[in-house]
Write a structure and sequence with these properties.
- By secondary structure, the chain is mainly alpha-helical.
- About 50% of the residues lie in helices and about 5% in strands.
- It folds into 2 domains: about 80 residues, no CATH class; about 70 residues, Tetratricopeptide repeat domain (Serine Threonine Protein Phosphatase 5, Tetratricopeptide repeat, Alpha Horseshoe), CATH 1.25.40.
- The protein has a two-stranded antiparallel ribbon.
- The radius of gyration is 17 Å and the shape is globular.
- The chain starts with 8 loop residues before the first helix and ends in a 6-residue tail after the last helix.
C-alpha cells in the first residue's frame, strides 16, 4: 500500500482532505491500541467515527482506483451511523451508479437503499433503490440480502 496506493496523488489528496490517517504496526505498536479495533491482519483499513468506534473495515491491499471508492464507502458508513443519511446516500449512490460498475457497486447499492430508507422511512423508496440493485447486480450476495416488497 505504501509503495503504490498511498503514493498516488489522488489517494494522498483524498486522505488529506477528508480523513485523519493513523498507521499502526501489528507487531510493534502496543496491543492495547490494536485489540479494541479488532485488528488481526494487515493491512486493515478502518473507518472510525468521532468517538473512535469502527464503522467499516476492509482488509488487505487495494490499487488506487478501488481504494478511492473504498474511501467513499467507509465515509458513507460513518455518515450513516451518525444519521447523516443524505450524505451517506450520496456517497453510496456515487459508487452504485458508477459506469462501468466497480466491485464495490453492489455493496454500495445495498447501503444506498438503507440510507434512503432511514432518511425517508419509505418502503417504496427502499424498494426503488433495491430494484436497481437487483437489476444491475442480480447474482450478488448484496442482491440476495435486499428483499423487495413487491416480489
Amino acid at each position: 500500500m505504501e509503495a503504490a496506493t498511498y503514493r498516488d496523488p489522488r489517494v494522498a489528496a483524498a486522505i488529506e482532505e477528508r480523513f485523519v490517517p493513523l498507521s499502526l504496526d501489528l507487531f510493534h505498536d502496543p496491543r492495547e491500541w490494536l485489540r479494541p479495533l479488532g485488528v488481526i491482519w494487515t493491512p486493515m483499513i478502518l473507518f472510525l467515527d468521532r468517538r473512535g468506534e469502527v464503522r467499516y473495515r476492509s482488509p488487505d491491499f487495494l490499487p488506487p482506483d478501488l481504494f478511492l471508492e473504498l474511501l467513499d464507502l467507509g465515509e458513507g458508513h460513518v455518515a450513516l451511523y451518525w444519521a447523516r443519511f443524505q450524505e451517506a446516500s450520496a456517497l453510496f449512490r456515487r459508487i452504485a451508479e458508477r459506469e462501468p460498475p466497480s466491485p464495490w457497486s453492489p455493496e454500495a447499492a445495498y447501503w444506498w437503499g438503507v440510507a434512503v430508507y432511514l432518511a425517508t422511512r419509505s418502503r417504496p423508496e427502499l424498494d426503488r433503490v433495491w430494484t436497481i440493485l437487483h437489476t444491475r447486480f442480480p447474482d450478488t450476495i448484496w442482491a440476495a440480502r435486499a428483499i423487495v416488497d413487491e416480489w
